[in-house]
Amino acid sequence: MVSAEVARNIVGIIGNVISFGLFLSPVRGPTFWRIYKAKDVEEFKPDPYLATLMNCLLWFFYGLPIVHPNSTLVLTINGIGLVIEGAYIIIFIIYAAKNTRWKMLGVLALEAAFMAAVVACVLLGAHTHEKRSMIVGILCVIFGSIMYASPLTIMGKVIRTKSVEYMPFFLSLVNFLNGCCWTGYALIKFDIYITIPNALGTIFGLIQLILYFYYYRRSTPKKGRNVELPTVLTKNAVTSGIVSVTIEK
User: Fold this and answer.
1) What global pTM score does this model have?
2) 244 secondary structure, DSSP code
3) The dihedral of CA 164, 169, 173, 179: what is its sign?
4) What is the model's pLDDT at position 185?
């Protein structure tokens, strides 16, 4: 029989793979290829990437042995996430309009200052793993919830425009699977700090998928069939013509 610890490690490894797919999903989807080709971010929002960067920073700190021992799987995936999200943000900064670029740089400066303050306060003010885990864990819950809720701006746009153009399906799917997997990981050996944000991620991911399928069917053009009809011949016409008329099903 598989022990709880082994089962948790297996689920954690699966969670690492899915999270890696989540971090790479903008590359597989149309988002960054479209930005690169157009040399413009168009209507794509940087909010999810800025929120994810902050979330990765906090979880990386949480997974360090000096804060929460035996959290290697949490540490590794968030270290990878930091590198990938940093690359996305650099691309956004390069191709964004001047106002958006300055706003992003301002947010990044605030995130860096906040993270430095957190590290200093935790290491100097909390002297046990339990206290450090609690302080950083609460912050992880808050920012993890913000990260998962950040696509709400995109969901609002989908509802307003009745189009899923700016909400890639693959990103929504992996977001949902990621939330499910890490919620399972946290429940095997209960960790409330991992459970809360990932349970919210599961819910938000499911809502995104429902919205995608609902509006995709309505925003996809109907297929048509071509029917050939003879043209009306004028008196001086020498040859007949054929006109193609599309009739919607």
Assistant:
1) 0.72
2) E
3) negative
4) 87
